[in-house]
Specification:
By secondary structure, the chain is an alpha/beta fold. It is built from 20 helices and 26 strands. The strands form 5 sheets. Strands 3-2-4-1-10-9-11-14 form an 8-stranded antiparallel β-sheet, covered by helices on one side. Strands 5-6-7-8-12-13 form a 6-stranded antiparallel β-sheet. A 5-stranded parallel β-sheet has the order 18-17-19-20-21, with helices on both faces. It binds 2-deoxy-2-amino glucitol-6-phosphate. 2-deoxy-2-amino glucitol-6-phosphate binds next to helix 10.
Length: 668
């Protein structure tokens, strides 16, 4: 998830673009860039790191703190000429990056251009077939400057554009070899029928878009079109702000609403061609589309949180999209197989491993615990899960048939990094599931899979957890299909995984219902979270969420463990959250629930839709759609996230920045 901005208007583009990048920085902040139409050319500046690095590089705020012109020795100090004079350009695009393909670097920062340096684009999304397209373009002589999937788009447009241009230059002979009159087809790109180059760029983009697989939000400018900017959307968000004398295109309205409240939201498959006096929106078949202009009355804070009061709630509601981004381009449903590009380099070694140790901290560790059940049940690989903070102080028995799988959202958790280094010392193959591209853990492991869910801002991890469990399922199919797992089983898991985003939407629809239940229990001092098998880790995760957000003491326990001691704590003031879907351990869970009820304990149950029996036992029930047992933790965790969120918000606590916590724990 990156942030893109585009500007065409009568005012200076740079301030609007930089302001837009700052407002979109929460979407990604590992590198940034801007390209401006200046002095009949397009000039681009990129920088690694946060927007302020780019500003400094541009010398955007040099005025703020003018440097002394003379050095201490009295020599005249020639301050570097800012590449852009602020006044100059009225056309430009900019980008703040959340790397997916290619580590954060200046070359990989956007905007990207073609070989001629005429076509410049900024892109948010993932082009799944970029490798295949790149190979073809390289065969044609295109030279690539980055490792990104995005740069392929610029070269593809260039390739089509030049071919069409050739056709334009070389008029077709009227008669073909057989002497028949060659009714030369209408030049494909006419706007208003006149055969000129005006439409060439847009049509080259359309042709290129038809060859792309994946998700994109794109803004594009071309050196030969000083009054034109084009935008296209498929899967990634894109909005157009209509000012009196300017048009601003952005990934979301937080980069627009300080300039205008008149906004058009592009839908999938739509393209917007904007020039100084006209805005044309049409679909990929060049059919014009009438779009409604909406009045947005949000303040900026709201916009960055998309109208949600906290980033945590926004990230909970992003899970349908984030899960889809984690799966996208990685499943081959018909073959019942999974492709994980990041594992290809070690796929042979993975065939030979006979043991997996999963290591992580906090929420990531709970995702690992779900993965343990999956890998043993479906891939038949002996698996253990270790707290990373304990791992290196134990004498772990490791050999080269052992793979260590580290899980980390931030990729900077010191304990997890140390555990990886420990395992590497012992020749283990080190793998990882990481969200932050280019992070220390991402660079330390031998192979891995990125979550592709964009930045997780709220300290309490939510969308990272469900994505980590989804990727554990992908890894299970990947390794399972290398072993005994049948096509049918692989296909079944993939089918169910692809249905998860819609099922999460269904649960998010119960938000108000869950809030009411949270109101009922928000003053509890203690809470048990109980689950069995795949949902034992879910109970641990639910308890962690309530603890870190509401400061209520909560304990996650395997349901079957209660009668071995903890049940002594049960009374009317010690409620329990029971994760009890209709799965292979349902009956066991039901009897454990009755044990608690019979001792006066209050119970909230997470149950499968249509399960009337659980209603007779539990005080409150939150229903989730049915899915494969191994995937129920993804669905069952969402109501637990919402419950903890509402208890914290109802208590008036700082949901996004709970006391005593940090988003990334970089110390041991
Ligand atoms: C979870 O809500 C917490 N923020 C914390 O437990 C977190 O999961 C843990 O610190 C691991 O972080 P990581 O995934 O970035 O390595």
């Amino acid at each position: 998830m990156c942030g893109i901005v585009g500007y065409l208007g009568k005012n200076s583009a740079l301030p609007v673009l930089i302001d837009g990048l700052r407002r979109l920085e929460y979407r990604g902040y590992d590198s940034a860039g801007v390209a401006l139409y200046l002095e009949n050319d397009i000039q681009c500046v990129k920088a690694v790191g946060k927007i302020k690095e780019l500003e400094e590089k541009i010398g955007y705020y040099e005025i703020k703190s003018p440097q002394p012109l003379f050095t201490k020795e009295g020599n005249y100090k020639k301050s570097p000429q800012p590449p852009f004079n602020k006044g100059g350009s009225c056309l430009g695009i900019a980008h703040t990056r959340w790397a997916t393909h290619g580590e954060p670097s200046e070359d990989n920062a956007h905007p990207h251009s073609d070989c001629s340096g005429k076509i410049w684009i900024a892109h948010n999304g993932i082009i799944e077939n970029h490798k295949a397209l790149k190979e073809k373009l390289e065969e044609k002589g295109h030279k690539f400057k980055s490792q990104t999937d995005t740069e392929v788009i610029a070269h593809l447009i260039e390739d089509i554009y030049n071919n069409e241009l050739e056709k334009l230059k070389s008029p077709q002979p009227l008669f073909n070899k057989e002497g028949n009159n060659r009714k030369s087809p209408q030049p494909p790109f006419t706007k208003g029928g006149n055969n000129n180059r005006e439409g060439l760029l847009t049509d080259s983009l359309i042709k290129a878009l038809k060859m792309l697989k994946g998700a994109y939000g794109i803004v594009l400018i071309h050196k030969d079109y000083p009054d034109k900017i084009i935008a296209a959307k498929m899967g990634s968000p894109l909005a157009i702000g209509l000012g009196d004398t300017e048009t601003i295109i952005a990934s979301d309205i937080s980069a627009i609403i300080t300039h205008t409240k008149q906004v058009i939201y592009l839908d999938d498959g739509e393209i917007a061609e904007i020039d100084k006096n006209d805005l044309r929106i049409f679909n990929i078949d060049n059919v014009k589309i009438e779009k409604e202009i909406e009045e947005v009355n949000w303040d900026i804070g709201e916009a960055e949180k998309k109208g949600f009061p906290y980033f945590m709630l926004k990230e909970i509601f992003e899970q349908p999209e984030s899960i889809m981004n984690s799966i996208r381009g990685r499943v081959m449903e018909r073959e019942g197989k999974v492709k994980l590009g990041g594992f290809d380099s070690v796929s042979k070694k993975l065939r030979d491993i006979n043991r997996i140790i999963i290591t992580a901290c906090g929420t990531a560790m709970h995702a690992g615990l779900v993965g343990e059940y999956m890998l043993e049940e479906y891939a038949g690989i002996p698996t253990e899960v270790e707290y990373a903070s304990e791992f290196r102080y134990r004498q772990p028995i490791i050999n080269k048939e052992t793979a260590l799988l580290a899980i980390s959202q931030s990729g900077e958790t010191a304990d997890t990094l140390a555990a990886i280094r420990e395992a590497k010392e012992k020749n283990a193959l080190t793998l990882g599931i990481v969200n932050v591209v280019g992070s220390s853990i991402a660079r330390e492991i031998d192979a891995g899979a990125y979550n592709h869910i964009g930045p997780e801002i709220s300290v309490a991890s939510t969308k990272a957890f469900t994505s980590q469990v989804a990727i554990m399922a992908l890894i299970t199919v990947y390794l399972g299909r290398q072993r005994q797992m049948s096509l049918v089983v692989g296909e079944r898991i993939i089918k169910e995984l692809l249905l998860i985003p819609e099922k999460i939407k269904n649960i998010l629809g119960r938000n108000d219902e869950i809030k009411k239940i949270a109101q009922k229990y928000m003053n509890a001092d203690n809470f048990f979270y109980l689950g069995r098998k795949y949902n034992n880790p879910t109970a641990l995760e639910g308890a962690l969420k309530l603890k870190e957000l509401s400061y209520i003491h909560a304990e996650g326990i395997p349901s079957g463990e209660m009668k071995h001691g903890s049940i002594a704590l049960i009374d009317g003031n010690f409620p329990s959250m029971f994760i009890c879907p209709k799965d292979s351990v349902y009956e066991k869970n039901i009897s454990n629930m009755e044990e608690i009820k019979s001792r006066g304990g209050r119970v909230i149950a997470i149950a499968t839709e249509g399960d009337e029996r659980v209603k007779e036992i539990a005080d409150d029930v939150i229903y989730i759609p049915k899915t494969l047992e191994m995937l129920t933790p993804i669905l069952a965790t969402v109501p637990l996230q919402l419950f903890a969120y509402h208890v914290s918000a109802l208590k008036g606590l700082d949901v996004d920045k709970p006391r005593n916590l940090a988003k990334s724990v970089t110390v041991e």
